[in-house]
Amino acid sequence: MLSKPVPGEDLFVYLAVSNSAISSALIREELGAQHPVFYTSKALLDAETCYPKMEKLILALVVSARKLRPYYQAHRVIVMTDFPLRSILHSPDASQRLMKWAIELSQYDLLYRPKTAIKAQTLADFVAKFTPSAEKEKLVNQRKESSKTDGTSAEPSKPSDMWQLRVDGASNQKGAGAGVVIITPDGTLLEQAITLGFPASNNEAEYEALLAGLRLAKELIIKKLAIYSDSQLITNQASGEYMAKHPRMILYLDKVQELLKAFPTFTIQQVPRAENAHADALASLRSALDTQFRCSIPVEHLDRPSIEEIELIDTMQIDEDPSWQDPIIDYLTNGNLPTDKSEARKVQQKAARYYMLGNKLIRRSYSGPYLTCIKYPQTLEVLCKIHDGECGNHSGGRSLAQKALNIGYFWPTMRHDSAEYVKKCDRCQRYKLIPNLPAEVYHPQNSPWPFMQWAIDLVGPLPPAPAKKEMMIVATDYFTRWIEAQALSSTKEADVERFIWRNIICRFGCP
Known about the structure:
By secondary structure, the chain is of the alpha/beta class. The protein has four domains: 11-126, Ubiquitin-like (UB roll) (Roll), CATH 3.10.20; 163-297, CATH 3.30.420.10; 365-431; 454-508, CATH 3.30.420.10. It contains 19 helices and 18 strands. It has a six-stranded mixed β-sheet. It has a five-stranded mixed β-sheet with strand order 3-2-1-4-5. Helix 1 (53-67) runs parallel beside helix 4 (96-105).
């Protein structure tokens, strides 16, 4: 029996995937009991069957939101899952497909919580567990065969929720690198290759790999972690059996112990190099893997060692006004949202286009580079360098804002700030071309409109013409330069009056 939700209450969604289909169940809770609201399912296409299990889970959530749009728009939906879906959607290494899904899901009020025990019996049969990996199936089959030969019954092994972290570092003449492999409890692999842009020994490369793996595991909010490395020195120093004596090793060890505090349960173990071949291949990416594999493996570049940090200067704390970045950073790092539902939905929609890179907020861009988000007074410094710096050409407001985008900076009011900055530039106001300004100096006009003022003059004597006409009277308009002329045999007063009456007054009016 399906249940009708009450307006304003929270709904819960459970996701399940298999090799050929994905499904979800939307439920509500009432008096401690779970009641189903609706079910969705979809058969995977041939291309979709090749998706990793993480992407299949996100696809199941997207399909559920598309088919049950009215429920998602009217209620806050809590996604019950044990996998870090929110971290993957906002990861800087997310693919274009995940970015599109993240933007599509940002319009809904979604929260992600770890999955607890399902009380409804109808959902117990619906939510499917992940199929075990091939290695686990082999182990189960071997145990069954051994139990048959021994005559004992094989007990089913309980699924472990321990995540595995395998790290390795390498240093040679071509440079230094590190490899990180994270294996989820269901067998999904997360790979990360790191190239070091500074000279490092083999032990330093091993420590860089361990630190990178711990940082990645911390971002995924992993609680139980098993760390494996083929370096005896690193594993024994991290576990406390060996003592670090070299100054750089002491700094690396302090950094590792600081990151290990974020994991309630963890183990560190040394394994043979043959069992750590995957991380070893990622560490030696330049020589061990072909070029065709590099495009599918995320590669990170470190410009300086992890132990070299910027020295902090003792300064007095000054209160700052709330920045536009604060609610987005708080949601991406801690998952906190404003109490107002409309404001919370706006923050979720905006956060789909951002991700955190260390302590910096980065905005995704489709056509250009990813944009670093800045705030005042950094915005003023960027505009100053672009507008009137060494390569500045004192461009206008719109051009200045577009140049800041092309360089890789973003803040919401950049177009308004660019226009205001150009208005305050002294050189722009002093030497800027004025629109509609003539190329020459204006010349004053004696006549404001046509045929208002005439100039009259007598020309002659000229060579005799028929009727003994030796003189000529000429009248010229000052505005249009129109000419009226007539030949005369004499220049008496009556002849001039007759010419003015006939050729000027009668034709063009009284001047």
